[in-house]
């Protein structure tokens, strides 16, 4: 399958990394030149790839390999490395074996049949978990022995974050069958090897749970190596599906024998030992409040809870998330061990409870919307999108873009208010611009005791764990270091967080609201922000308009902050002259709403008396306007209008002001006009007012 073309140059017909076996496209012809590939690797390292984004790769180096080299270099992998990290701790190996018992069991038949065939071939077959840690290895005895030199053995960690480009780690990254041959490896110490890996997916939810890989010295390369491991991965997935179907049947039988009072109209969810739904009936799908008849297949595979190690009723109830505590939970044991649970939702109480929750959420959402002051069309459009996201059960992230000071955190709180399931659902905010580079991983994901120098003795949860069941607001996400971004993407994709120094995953149910004052598309072009992370967090995005584009929202905000400060301090409200308001409307507000709020607070402290005139405003504001205080007496302005109709309208406004005690919102409602229109009318008719 290879023909000599020149020194160290051979023709390889190989399976492309992203080719599906189902398509029938079984081969892609590429040239592999050992010397040229080595020169390309040396040139790549000499050009300091950490400072470049999406560099142009040589035509004779596959794009898949060159992209992986770039990830390896920017991830800090030592290109002169000679081996992978290896854990030889017996307790840790035992934990890995227990944690991957199902995967090992499903692979046993395939490995047993292939193991005998590989003896004397120079090849070894390995099984790795979802982190790229080897949990089983069979094959040629000499190759297994030589594999120890590079830690290609049980306990060796072979993801890209640990050892750069290789068949196991790159298959995990791409999610497709992948081969990496000789000089294509990133680390110098493993360039004499060839490997082909294929990911193994959980049949229930489609997540990658492991990799099967064929490795050996480079002469064992054959075009069909990738096809072999892909076929083996499919066999393992088929065995997993059979195991899961058997467990599903047994759990249903266990439920039937233990729940004689179950009624047909009740909602029922059976979860497996990982807390994933394996059977659903008569339960709402997403936001649907109507009950569904028959199995709800779309609900299968959804993670619902963490099952405790014990099967006691008290522990099970404590393990239930807050939004599921209206159900009745029954432990399901197989062969004496807790292997699942049944969640029964009584038909009538469940609907009643949902209605109460719906009313409470609507009230919280209305209160959160009321905190965002403004009637401009652009602002209302942003509020509408945020409300839709808050009510949606399928949208798990929102990107809020806008200049500094426009009030982005208010939109994060709006999403929290609209998606609350209980009064205790957390809202956690973190400003990425206020975290030192070294602490980002610990703050986001947490750490276990002694994970690094300076780590707390008890360990610490990260903001994802703290926000579990609620909303996490990441402000200034554009400040997130590039090397942390892949880990954030993985948490968002898998909904599982790993503390630093801990191999155990912790499922999290978090809605993310990311906000930024940067243009993230420009950051992507500059190589400072990952494109895949941008599209993950920005599936739904809103742009909050700057205050200078919101027109008479300035007047509404002046009223709002004036009333807020007046109420808190027990003072009389400030009254603004017409010229002062004109200057405030004409000003550009580079600091946006925050600048306006600070100005109103300053005026309350520094203004002599309660009348605010043009001369009381800062110079940068008065310089931008052309108003003058001369002849500004409002009664004179009113007198100039004249006419009986004008006098009648003026009197009607005075009467409305008197009837509503000066509350301008109620006055506008009474007169059937908007508040901005009311402000204009008051100015037009020369009626002095204080913002009460």
TrEMBL record:
UniProt cross-references to InterPro entries, sorted A to Z: AAA+_ATPase (IPR003593), AAA_lid_NorR (IPR058031), GAF (IPR003018), GAF-like_dom_sf (IPR029016), Homeodomain-like_sf (IPR009057), HTH_Fis (IPR002197), P-loop_NTPase (IPR027417), Sigma_54_int (IPR002078)
GO molecular function: ATP binding; sequence-specific DNA binding
One GO BP annotation of this record: regulation of DNA-templated transcription
Family matches, as Gene3D superfamilies: 1.10.8.60, 3.30.450.40, Homeodomain-like, P-loop containing nucleotide triphosphate hydrolases
Domain (Sigma-54 factor interaction) ranges: 372-605
Keywords, in A-Z order: Activator, ATP-binding, DNA-binding, Nucleotide-binding, Transcription, Transcription regulation, Two-component regulatory system
Protein name per UniProt: Sigma-54-dependent Fis family transcriptional regulator
Species this chain originates from: Mesorhizobium wenxiniae
Species classification: Bacteria, Pseudomonadati, Pseudomonadota, Alphaproteobacteria, Hyphomicrobiales
């Amino acid at each position: 399958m290879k023909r000599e073309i020149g020194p160290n140059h051979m023709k390889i017909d190989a399976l492309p990394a992203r080719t599906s076996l189902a398509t029938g496209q079984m081969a892609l012809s590429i040239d592999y030149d050992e010397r040229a590939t080595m020169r390309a690797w040396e040139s790549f390292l000499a050009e300091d790839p950490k400072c470049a984004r999406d560099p142009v790769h040589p035509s004779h180096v596959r794009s898949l390999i060159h992209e992986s080299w770039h990830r390896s270099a920017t991830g800090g992998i030592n290109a002169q490395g000679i081996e992978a990290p290896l854990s030889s701790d017996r307790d840790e190996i035992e934990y890995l074996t227990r944690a991957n018992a199902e995967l090992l069991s499903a692979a046993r038949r395939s490995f047993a049949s292939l193991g005998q065939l590989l003896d004397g071939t120079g090849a070894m077959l390995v099984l790795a978990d979802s982190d790229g840690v080897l949990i089983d290895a069979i094959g040629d005895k000499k190759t297994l022995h030589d594999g120890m030199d590079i830690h290609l053995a049980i306990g060796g960690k072979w993801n890209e974050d640990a050892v750069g480009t290789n068949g196991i780690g790159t298959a995990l990254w791409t999610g497709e069958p992948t081969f990496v041959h000789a000089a294509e490896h990133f680390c110098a110490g493993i360039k004499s090897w060839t490997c082909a890996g294929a990911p193994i997916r959980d049949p229930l939810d489609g997540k990658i749970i492991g990799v099967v890989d064929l490795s050996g010295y480079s002469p064992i390369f054959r075009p069909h190596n990738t096809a072999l491991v892909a076929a083996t991965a499919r066999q393992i997935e088929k065995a997993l599906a059979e195991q899961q179907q058997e467990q599903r049947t047994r759990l249903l039988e266990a439920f039937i024998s233990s729940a004689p009072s179950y009624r047909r109209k009740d909602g029922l969810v059976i979860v497996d030992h990982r807390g994933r739904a394996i059977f659903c009936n008569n339960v709402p799908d997403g936001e649907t409040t109507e009950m569904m008849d028959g199995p709800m297949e779309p609900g299968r595979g959804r993670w619902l809870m963490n099952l405790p190690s014990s099967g006691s009723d008290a522990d099970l109830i404590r393990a239930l998330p807050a939004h599921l505590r209206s159900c009745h939970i029954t432990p399901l044991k197989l062969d004496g061990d807790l292997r699942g649970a049944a969640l029964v939702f009584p038909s009538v109480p469940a609907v009643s409870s949902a209605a109460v929750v719906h009313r409470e959420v609507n009230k919280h959402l209305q209160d959160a919307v009321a905190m965002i002051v403004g009637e401009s069309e652009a602002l209302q459009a942003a509020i509408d999108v945020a409300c839709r996201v808050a009510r949606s059960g399928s949208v798990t992230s929102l990107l809020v873009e806008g200049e500094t000071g426009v009030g982005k955190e208010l939109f994060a709180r709006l999403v929290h208010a609209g998606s609350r399931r209980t009064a205790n659902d957390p809202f956690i905010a973190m400003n990425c611009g206020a975290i030192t580079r070294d602490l980002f991983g610990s703050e986001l994901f947490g750490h276990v005791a002694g994970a690094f120098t300076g780590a707390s003795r008890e360990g610490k949860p990260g903001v994802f764990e703290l926000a579990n069941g609620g909303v996490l607001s990441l402000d200034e996400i554009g400040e997130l270091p590039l090397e942390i971004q892949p880990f954030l993407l993985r948490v968002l994709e898998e909904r599982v967080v790993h503390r630093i120094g801990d191999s155990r995953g912790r499922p999290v149910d978090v809605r993310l609201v990311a906000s930024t004052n940067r243009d993230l598309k420009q950051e992507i072009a500059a190589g400072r922000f990952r494109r895949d992370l941008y599209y993950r967090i920005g599936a739904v995005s809103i742009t909050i308009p700057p205050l200078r584009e919101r027109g008479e929202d300035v007047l509404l905000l002046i009223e709002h902050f004036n009333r807020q400060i007046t109420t808190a301090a027990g003072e009389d409200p400030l009254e603004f002259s017409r010229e002062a308001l004109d200057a405030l409307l004409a000003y550009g507000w580079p600091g946006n709403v925050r600048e306006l709020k600070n100005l109103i607070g300053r005026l309350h402290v520094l203004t002599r008396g309660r009348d605010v005139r043009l001369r009381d405003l800062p110079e940068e504001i008065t310089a931008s306007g052309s108003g003058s205080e001369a002849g500004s007496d409002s009664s004179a302005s009113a007198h100039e209008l004249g006419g009986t109709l004008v006098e009648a309208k003026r009197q009607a406004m005075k009467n409305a002001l008197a009837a509503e005690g000066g509350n301008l919102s109620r006055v506008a409602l009474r007169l059937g006009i908007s508040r901005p229109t009311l402000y204009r009318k008051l100015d037009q008719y020369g009626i002095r007012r204080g913002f009460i």
